[in-house]
Amino acid sequence: MSRTRMTIAALVAGLLAGWVWFYQPLPFQREPLAGAVTGAPTQVSAAPVPAPNAGACTPRAGLTVATGDDISRGSHRRDVIADWSADRKISATMLEVSGSTDVRRAQLAAAAQAGSCEYDILVLDVAHVAEFAEFGYIKPIDLADDSRFLPGPLEAGRYDGRQYGVPFAADAPLEFARKDVDTTGWALQLDDAEAGTINMLELADVLDGDRVALDSAGWQALRDYQRTAGREPVLAESLSYDEDSSLKAFRDGRTHLGNQVTHMRNWPIAFHRLAADPLMRRQDGTLAFQIRAPRRGVLGGSVLAVSAHVGPERERQALQLIEDLTRHDVQLRLFACGGYAPVLSSVYAVYAAGHGPDCAALLQLPRPTAASEVVEIGPAELKDLAAQIKTSVDRSVMRPRTAYYSQFSQAFRSCATGVMNRRVSEQVFLDAADSLTQALSGRTVKDPPC
Questions:
Q1: CB atoms within 10 A of CB 395
Q2: Where would I find the H helices in 206-311?
Q3: Do domains 3-170+300-333 and 174-298+404-440 have the same CATH topology?
Q4: DSSP 8-class letter at 298
Q5: 10 Å Cβ neighbour count for 230?
Q6: Residue 57: its pLDDT value, please?
Q7: Which terminal Cβ of the chain has fewer Cβ within 10 Å, N or C?
Q8: pLDDT tens for residues 392-435?
Q9: Are 284 and 226 in contact (CB under 8 A)?
Q10: Is 74 left (phi over 0), alpha (psi -120 to 50) or beta?
Q11: Please, is 436 exposed, middle or buried when counting C-beta atoms within 10 Å of its C-beta (0-12, 13-18, 19+)?
Q12: In a 3-state reduction of DSSP, which class is residue 26?
């Protein structure tokens, strides 16, 4: 795909996003497929289901993978897709739609609702699988062997008893702490975006399966968020922080207002970005920080899904690429080199046994010299990272699975932010339970609900 075409596609989706952001469309009226898919890969195959306008798109060469920003060291997601493309002689392009989970969801939903054929594979946040499945934006997928995946990420890709997303990255929160310093300030991500919702759900601890149980303890935890047990004190600057700004504050050791930062809650990808920085290492080369899995967290991560608009041949190719991206060696590379949390049990087993390679060994790269500014993340560091990620994934709970999650997310975040800013009383917060339940089921809620 040319750069001009990519830009136009992203622009159209972005313009459409304006009217689809909070609009929940009706399901497609589906037409039967012209024929069955053949030649599907061993591990993943298409589940027979009618799809809207399948095969009706204008033929074009190659596949397009719509994803968020590749923030890994060296853009390894793009590299593994390019390697597959070269090996299979099938053009495949990774299109970075948006770095924002919320904006990306809106743009992809707008494009799907408009019948766009620009995207073949969608990299979705696990919280949006239900929406895209319910409204017919993506196709169900049959997994020949789902036992190789971690249970949590696998379950997060299911909706209504069917698998719609193949696990791609298994995000779960980690706690980062500078070594040999007293705790003087925690940096969380509490801004008005999906990361804020996740952090607020973790603070309030109100998730109960696909329900959200608001209670006095949750209100108190949000109101006194700066004195949360185990994370004390949480800096007020966290109310404006996302993943990147909190990471910068932790790396710098101070917020933009000059307050000291010694601890941070963030995703596993932050480890590589910090560990590769010479300023985050001691004189002996060891890390100047440590990590651990929190007591409980909210599961993040992404899945690979096939657009409902692709025809049989493009679907076959898309499934082949999805199979490749979830192979053991590819997941190993995305973890060791890029910092993406693996979804395969086998990758964690390799590191737990002490046989996990670092990126240089994996790609057979020359080792950095003492004078080099490049810092190599070693096997022992990767072993500890893998262990902490696995523990966090096992302890984490899923966000509510509903086609109207985005509506709920904004409503809950509005209430929680009001509590943290001391504008929402306990009774008002508790009374919002009905509005949030309505949001989960797609009914209109008053704005704001608190």
A1: 16
A2: 216-223, 243-252, 269-275
A3: yes
A4: B
A5: 9
A6: 67
A7: N
A8: 999 999 999 999 999 999 999 999 999 999 999 999 999 999 89
A9: no
A10: left
A11: buried
A12: coil
Of 116, 121, 132, nearest to 95 by C-alpha is 121
Amino acid identity of 420?
M
Distance of CA 252 to the CA centre of its chain: 25
Dihedral pair phi/psi, residue 115, rounded to 5° = 80, 20
CB count, 10 Å around CB of 235?
23
CA 429, 434, 438 angle in degrees (round to 5)? 125
Rounded CA Rg of the chain: 22
| 234, 261 Cβ separation under 8 angstroms | no
Choice among 45-54, 222-231, 369-378, 441-450 with the minimum mean pLDDT: 45-54
Q: At what angle do helices 405-420 and 194-204 cross, to 10 degrees?
A: 60
Nearest to 416 by CA among 403, 401, 432: 432
**Domain extent listing, the chain:** 3-170+300-333, 174-298+404-440
The DSSP annotation for 68-94 comes to S---STT-HHHHHHHHHHHHHT--EEE
Q: pLDDT tens across 40-56, in order?
A: 333 565 544 444 554 46
3-170+300-333 homologous superfamily: Periplasmic binding protein-like II (3.40.190.10)
Identify any residues that bridge with 314 across adjacent strands, giving them in sequence order: none
Q: How far from 430 is each of 167, 203, 337, 413, 420, CA to CA, in Å? A: 35, 16, 45, 14, 15
- In the numeric block, the tokens 């804020």 are attached to 196
CB 298, CB 198: distance < 8 Å? yes
Tokens 């920085």 correspond to what residue?
Answer: 277
Please tell me the predicted confidence (pLDDT) of residue 307: 97
